[in-house]
Design goal:
Layout (H helix, E strand, L loop, with lengths): L2 E8 L4 H14 L3 E7 L8 E9 L12 E6 L2 H6 L4 E10 L6 H4 L9 H7 L4 E4 L1 H8 L5 H13 L3 H11 L5 H14 L1
Parallel strand pairs: 1-4, 4-5, 5-6
Antiparallel strand pairs: 1-3, 2-3
Helix pairs in contact: 1-7, 5-6, 5-8, 6-8
Amino acid sequence: MKVNILIVGVGGQGTLLASRILGKAADLLDKDCKLSEVHGMSQRGGSVVTHARIADSVASPIIAEGEADIVLAFELLEGARWRHFVKPDGFILVNTQRIWPMPVIGGAADYPDNLIADMQNEGKNVLALDAYGLAVSAGSDKAINTVMIGAMAKRLGWDKQVLAKAIEQSVKPAFAEINKVAFELGYNAC
């Protein structure tokens, strides 16, 4: 297994926990995992980006542009912003949820239309998913991260049991069951 995953989203969506779950899964599989997190204005709803590289041996945590196997986008505009990181045979797994950035909230800009079609017209392999809706169905809108990990796991053919164990070991016990349900919903959605 060798995979480069760029996780992008907005503060509060659980992108950092998602990277920790992937790190735990790599550990359970006896693989090396390097993570690099950029928080930016995450406390105020700004961009959050995490580079996650998993392989037998990883020297650097940073993924170069055009080298990501997967762009795991927790928010639609963030997926479009970071699409240049996906490699030609990779894919963008994007949550269709729209979270308006400050320029849109303030009326200085419009939220762009047709982002999925634009990415596809550029030749990007895009898998769009209503992860927010699935997370709510699981019992918490905070479970977007495990919905997305479930969808990615299915797409990559990863062992469900390993990821379920990684989730269990990474989240607080009170939220373990909701996150396992969210993972299954994401896995079954693809």
